[in-house]
Amino acid sequence: VILFGADIKLAGSLSLMISLPTMIVGFSRYINADAFLILKQERTLFVWMVIGSVIGAAIGGLMVGLFPLKALMTLLGVI
Q1: Helices vs. strands in the chain: H and E counts, helices first
Q2: What is the pTM of this model?
């Protein structure tokens, strides 16, 4: 954002596009390691975490237009 002067929303979207292939490869390795057995045992917890993540992402996506650009840049700089 600072180096290239890109819009904060564009930078966030591009960040996701860059990290998505890494997440896909990690997920495929996770599947091959038979690590899903714990998810079967903790299915209720897993379902609640998925529901919370989807709702949180949707609310965050809707709220991003409510905050001024300077506030978003400051908040993301602190994080």
Answers
A1: 4, 0
A2: 0.50
C-alpha distances (whole Å) from 48 to each of 5, 37, 45, 62 are 39, 17, 5, 21
- Domain spans of the chain? 8-78
24-26-32-38 Cα dihedral, nearest 10 degrees? -110
Structure tokens at 1: 């954002």
**What residues of the chain score a pLDDT lower than 70?**
1-4
Burial of 5 (0-12, 13-18, 19+ CB in 10 A): exposed
Both tokens assigned to 2: 């600072």
